[in-house]
Predict the 3D structure of the following.
Amino acid sequence: MLKMKNLKTVLVALFVTALFISCKSDDDDPVQQPSAEVKTGELTQNEIWTADRIYQIQGKLIVNNGVTLTIQPGTIIKGKEGDGTNASALVVARGGKLMAVGTADKPIIFTSILDNIEVGQKTGTNLDETDSAKWGGVIVLGNAKVSDKVGDTEGHIEGIDADAVYGKYGGNDNADNSGVIKYVSIRHGGISIGEGNEINGLTLGGVGSGTTIDNVEIVSNLDDGIECFGGAVVINHALVAYQGDDAFDIDQNFAGKFTNSMVVYKSSVGDEFLEIDGPENSTNVNGKFTVENCLFRDKDNAGSCDLKSKAQGVVQNNEFESLSKFKVSVKLDTDCTTVLTDAYTHYVDGDLEIKTNKTDAPLELYTKTEGCSVPTVQIDAAASVFSAAGNAMSVSPTTVQESDFSWTWTAENNKF
């Protein structure tokens, strides 16, 4: 038997232990994150994703024709790793709808499985602007007009297997509605499958004007930030940051608009602010793009724009910044073949307008020849095109500013 003294010691120790356990704060307990819900394959009925858990996309997740995927504010979606056509991506097929409506306080976040962000957070801590190609991206396909080189009025989106029916886009309804993308951040994605065949941060194929895209961020994507293949959607308050290729890429006679948007990148890593092509075939050839009231910031040397084959539309009332004050370049491609009509011809004829923009660096506006021996021609940077630093021309200020994007990863991590 225990002696009385030893018994008292044991009882006191037990009492102290029980008292410590009962008084221990809940804050001392590790937060138990809910288990992730893995999504893959085809959605054949409507779904609602909630912010109380993390969703993981494995391979392609397809929102089929007639199906609506609703994502609630604050929800985090992580794409798993995968190479080539096996890369993870959310694909909204023609006739499907994505209702991703976040808020400034609770944005919807698409990111990589490698991101240590947890439920309730707006940013993780282990990935930065150099971390790209960690998963695929978001692809939305609709029934609006396109001008595809191969299919004319219908195309097959890049980044998707050629025999996958859900990869088709295009039609005759420029008012088509693919849903709402609002306060959505897409991070650390982009996969290269081959030359000219990539998954971008946000890919839009034949997306109509009935679709709402307002306050969307694409950050640290391997290839383009946002690429539009035809369609007529208005993209408002988009921020592309630290892309590996072009920020806004326009193809196949896109007849929509980029407005009140911003680009911030390093031209030593990425390619251009804008890359714009016109129609590729003979049917839908009349649509014109608009890029206006945007702020383009190069944190490196020489931010540039490339206006290419058959580009037609207007670039107006934008501000171009080169933080090094080196130069801003606007290239108008010319082509000596009989197949393509060059951008310079459209510029001269008035189908391509560049007007009332401003830059804080020397401007280089020039033609670049493709496939012929015609020399490069420097074009006078007339006041009607750009007001360069020191030019007294009065240009209406752009309406967009950094504070408009205070909800983004870029702002949270001080990367403006």
About this structure: Residues 40-294+398-412 form one domain. Confidence is low (pLDDT under 50) at residues 1-5, 14-31, 380-384, 388-394. The two ends are 74 Å apart (CA to CA). The helical segments are 4-23, 343-349, 409-412.
